[in-house]
């Protein structure tokens, strides 16, 4: 019995040693570990600072349904007077202001604010090169990456308010005056 327990202990400790040497043995793994630790730190820190704010920030009035060009989207990076944050995912623009601790200035995903985050989300990258200055049709992404973008889109759809489309170059904005009542119901549901 004691022998069995000793063997089990040895197996466990050799497994731990293998995991540690795998993590620290390659510069790539070390870099990934560093990025993950940094993101966890930023998320925990933003949670703490949100907890220490005594009164909840008043919610912004919902935006009227409208389409955006990339240039128009850039104005909503959370640094404006109103502090509103918009992000595009797979051609759809979402108001993510209620997720400001993620996307606001200084947040772990603050670089997405006012941008099309599709490529960054698809490739799991937080580098500036995943955020293009011109319209990104994502045509070079593979099917797995496109699947991942669609999953992110669904996640955003569930959590945040959809505001309108991200316009392709030359595309005309839609006139949403007839659909405003439906939109109000959608916004009310999300804010509950
Ligand atoms: C590699 C290490 C990473 C770790 C440990 C990490 C950790 C986390 C955690 C814990 C959350 C949930 C926070 C919460 O609900 O309180 C989160 C959310 C999120 N992460 Fe990461 N993440 C990592 C990398 C990335 C990368 C590379 C991207 C994008 C390119 C990304 C994009 C997001 C987004 C968009 C959210 C959702 C925020 C929301 O709910 O609106 N993460 N991450």
Automatic annotation (TrEMBL):
Superkingdom of origin organism: Eukaryota
SUPFAM superfamilies: Cytochrome b5-like heme/steroid binding domain
Domain Cytochrome b5 heme-binding as annotated: residue spans: 68-167
Region feature Disordered, mapped onto this chain: 169-192
InterPro entries on file: Cyt_B5-like_heme/steroid-bd, Cyt_B5-like_heme/steroid_sf, MAPR/NEUFC/NENF-like
Gene Ontology CC entries for this record: endoplasmic reticulum; membrane
Sequence similarity: Belongs to the cytochrome b5 family. MAPR subfamily.
Protein name from the UniProt record: Cytochrome b5 heme-binding domain-containing protein
Organism for this UniProt entry: Candidula unifasciata
Lineage, broadest ranks: Eukaryota, Metazoa, Spiralia, Lophotrochozoa, Mollusca
